[in-house]
């Protein structure tokens, strides 16, 4: 398999006009009479080439727009990519992140191997470290391409991209550098997540996912990886995971990543469990799905991979907080050994569940994993899963559903979503929804009525959280780009890596 594009993000102190590079990148707002010092300096050196574009209406700075001006020896850069940033008053960190992603994406498409970014001066009202992080995350996100199964001759994209953030002021470079370093760690983790999620079911099954988790944390002394095979799952009576995996020739697994920081955590920091759904392929089982778009069900492991990658990023940054990654994994297939509608399953918690639909399998593996995290005395449990089509009906492909039993935790995740650019929207999951999940012949049933499916699914999971603070992220609809955009290639989004990592970073920062 071909190596995914290698990316490196650095800093350099240099005057923009004297910057020798294949492509210099700057940004312009659409509502600014003053284009800013960066644009004005370049425009002067280019004999008014940029201002002429604005004057004739060829470039207005609207969102998603971009244009290229060639240096032609007037400046050291071969070309200048000017990105539209939209209205200044609406600009956020995610505006910057997407601008950096657009620049990286254009660089790959144009086969540019060295790109120099001077986007940050347009965002001087934002924290420099956060700005640096957003730029680095954007570069990794935009440059990503999943083409490891294409032959070399069918794709001539660059093998690597060297990106640098420029400024003539050494103190500004120093302010940006810590954020760039953190953003590079998160960006690499998200790219790794996208690759694993994109790999098909004949490449990634539960044992292969467990091996990938071991590889992901290899060399990190602060992370211990424990794998529960089928024998150990039976010994621990993890009936939910075992039931879902019963129809496949690939045995189910429970993957546990325990991060113990080298540096002693600050007082009163919680032990956080991140729980991710790892269905490596979801046919629906006996309650089989329609054939249309079933190929996308290789992405039903996206929550699991987000957790694996977030733990990797947290460990690489050495954050002083205890984190437990819990990843239940199974392949949901129809066969003579599959679990059936009408079955009653005893879960790890001891609660019994009546199976009404084998395609409601995610909650069956997650309930065992949540119970395991609670038994490990985690104070906070956050699960993430491509769980319900109902959430996608409610929120489309723009936001993940957020539900939970603690308002402070929900607020913290909303803040992390704003900071990371991975959007969420709160939905209810209270007692009225839990009542819909009660069975007459078991403690619970695994599906509820037609309406409010995302909320009833979350209410089901809530029954396994015990006294822990718990939140649920339903990322159905957020896991996949069905077509490329100006800043992203099609395939897995890696959604959740930035959000979960940022949530943990914010917890640590609040206590320091």
Write the layout of secondary structure elements.
Blueprint: E1 6-13, E2 23-28, H1 37-45, H2 49-55, E3 66-70, E4 79-84, H3 93-109, E5 114-117, H4 128-143, E6 160-167, H5 170-198, H6 206-217, E7 223-228, H7 230-235, H8 239-245, E8 253-259, E9 272-276, E10 278-282, H9 302-317, E11 323-332, E12 344-346, E13 352-354, H10 362-375, E14 380-385, H11 389-395, E15 400-404, H12 407-420, E16 424-426, H13 431-435, E17 444-445, H14 453-462, E18 469-474, E19 480-481, E20 491-492, H15 497-511
Parallel strand pairs: 1-6, 2-4, 2-5, 5-6, 9-11, 9-14, 10-11, 13-17, 14-18, 15-16
Antiparallel strand pairs: 3-4, 7-8, 8-11, 12-13, 15-18, 19-20
Describe this structure in words.
The structure is a single chain. With 512 residues, this protein is α/β, with parallel strands linked by helices. It folds into two domains: 190 residues, Leucine Aminopeptidase, subunit E, domain 1 (3-Layer(aba) Sandwich); 313 residues, Zn peptidases (Aminopeptidase). The strands form four sheets. Strands 7, 8, 9, 10, 11, 14, 15, 16 and 18 form a nine-stranded mixed β-sheet that branches. Helix 5 packs antiparallel against helix 9 and helix 8 packs antiparallel against helix 10. The longest helix has 29 residues. The radius of gyration is 24 Å and the shape is elongated. The mean pLDDT is 95.
């Amino acid at each position: 398999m071909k190596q995914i594009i290698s990316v490196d993000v650095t800093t350099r102190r240099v005057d923009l006009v004297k910057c020798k590079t294949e492509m210099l990148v700057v940004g312009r707002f659409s509502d600014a009479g003053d284009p800013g010092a960066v644009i004005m300096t370049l425009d002067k050196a280019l004999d008014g080439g940029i201002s002429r574009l604005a004057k004739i209406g060829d470039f207005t700075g609207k969102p998603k727009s971009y244009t290229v001006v060639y240096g032609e020896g007037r400046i050291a850069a071969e070309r200048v990519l000017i990105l539209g940033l939209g209205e200044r008053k609406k600009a956020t960190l995610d505006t910057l992140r997407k601008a950096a992603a657009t620049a990286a994406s254009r660089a790959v498409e144009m086969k540019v191997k060295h790109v120099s970014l001077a986007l940050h001066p347009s965002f001087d009202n934002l924290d420099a470290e956060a700005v640096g992080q957003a730029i680095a995350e954007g570069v990794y996100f935009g440059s990503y391409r999943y083409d490891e199964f294409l032959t070399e001759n069918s794709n001539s994209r660059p093998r690597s991209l060297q990106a640098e953030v420029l400024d003539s002021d050494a103190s500004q470079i120093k302010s940006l550098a810590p954020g760039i370093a953190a953003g590079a760690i998160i960006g690499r983790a998200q790219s790794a997540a996208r690759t694993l999620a994109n790999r098909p079911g004949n490449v990634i099954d539960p044992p292969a996912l467990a091996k990938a988790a071991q590889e992901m944390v290899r060399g990190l002394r602060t992370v211990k990886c424990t794998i529960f095979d089928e024998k150990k799952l039976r010994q621990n009576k993890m009936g939910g995971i075992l039931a879902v995996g019963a129809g496949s020739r690939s045995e189910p697994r429970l993957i546990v990543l325990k991060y113990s920081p080298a540096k002693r955590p600050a007082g009163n920091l919680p032990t956080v469990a991140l729980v991710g759904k790892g269905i490596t392929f979801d046919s629906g089982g006996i309650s089989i799905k329609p054939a249309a778009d079933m190929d996308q069900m290789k992405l039903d492991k996206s929550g699991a991979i987000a957790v694996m990658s977030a733990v990797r990023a947290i460990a690489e940054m050495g954050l002083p907080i205890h984190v437990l990654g819990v990843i239940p994994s199974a392949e949901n297939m129809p066969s003579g050994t599959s679990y059936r509608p009408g079955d009653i399953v005893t879960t790890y918690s001891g609660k019994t569940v009546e199976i009404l639909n084998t395609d409601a399998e995610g909650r069956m593996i997650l309930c065992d994993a949540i119970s395991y995290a609670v038994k490990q005395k985690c104070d906070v449990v956050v699960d993430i899963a491509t769980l319900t089509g109902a959430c996608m009906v409610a929120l489309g492909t723009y936001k993940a559903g957020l539900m939970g039993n603690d308002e402070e935790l929900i607020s913290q995740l909303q803040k992390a979503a704003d900071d990371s650019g991975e959007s969420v929207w709160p939905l209810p999951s209270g007692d009225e929804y839990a009542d819909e999940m009660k069975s007459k012949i078991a403690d619970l049933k695994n599906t509820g009525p037609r309406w409010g499916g995302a909320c009833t699914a979350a209410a089901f999971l809530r029954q396994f959280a015990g006294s822990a603070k718990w939140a649920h992220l339903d990322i159905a609809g957020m896991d996949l780009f069905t077509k490329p955009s100006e800043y992203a290639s099609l395939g897995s989004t890696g959604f959740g890596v930035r959000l979960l990592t940022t949530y943990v970073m914010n917890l640590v920062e609040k206590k320091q």
